[in-house]
Amino acid sequence: MIQLRNIEKTYQQGPIKAFILRGVSIEIPEGEFVTIMGPSGAGKSTLLSILGMLDSAWKGELGFLGQAVHKLNPKQRVELNKKHIGFVFQSFHLLDDLTVYENLDIPLSYRDLKKSEREKVILETMDRFQITNKKALYPSQLSGGQQQLVAVARALIANPKLILADEPTGNLHSSQGEEIMELFKKLNGNGATIVQVTHSEKNAAYGHRIIQLRDGVVVNASSPA
């Protein structure tokens, strides 16, 4: 499903070119649950952004669902992202001027669904995440944990082929975090491919394998399950 070849990401630090990612080559088959781990500053979130086609300032090759992403223009990358990828951001990225209901409607608006069908999916999703009573609230009116639940719900609502999650349980109580990880496990069992970034060994244990990054380099990556 995903092929990364010699991915490099740099930034200029005065006269010096510093590497965020260097020579990263990874393959992720469809249906795998992969965890990316490493110390702060290792390049984990940057790698996730490249996989999600949110970062275009990199060198190398990225294949996704048979398409050469590195050859696509920005509009084509956006369309690929909207159709197939759900992203759980560490900082939520909810739209402040939209209600919980409206935030959840965004991914569905890219699908060929009638308004009544979208409403049904949104209500079922809010019920699953126990946020039905928050539907008319704005993100600023929610706690960090509630915003995280909405962010996870938004990422999963359209049944994406690929789920990218950056510290998906970081702001949740332990019981809520376990529920989210069990949900990821179930979705993966139903065919979704998942790539998560986490510092939690407990969360990492839900996946099939762990890819270790250090200083922008893959230092350990077991074979796909």
Beta content: 25-35%
Q: Could you say which structural class the secondary elements and strand pairing correspond to?
A: alpha/beta
Number of domains: 1
Indicate the overall shape. globular
Strand neighbour order, sheet with most strands? 6-7-8-3-9-10
User: Stretches where pLDDT falls below 50 for ≥5 residues?
Assistant: none
Q: Report the CATH superfamily.
A: P-loop containing nucleotide triphosphate hydrolases
Name of the level-1 CATH class: Alpha Beta
**Rg from Cα:** 18 Å
The major β-sheet equals:
6 strands, mixed
Task: Give the helix tally.
Answer: 7
Helix content: 25-40%
Assign the CATH topology: Rossmann fold
The N- and C-terminal alpha carbons lie at a distance of: 14 Å
Mean pLDDT: 93
Q: Which CATH architecture is right?
A: 3-Layer(aba) Sandwich
What is the strand tally?
10
SSE topology string? EEEHEEHEHHHEHEHEE
